[in-house]
Amino acid sequence: MPVVTIQVTRQGTLPDADRTTDAQKAALYKGVSALLQEVMGKHPDDTFVVFQEVELEDWGRGGVPVREWFARTRPAGAG
Question: For residue 31, is it within any domain?
Answer without folding.
Answer: yes
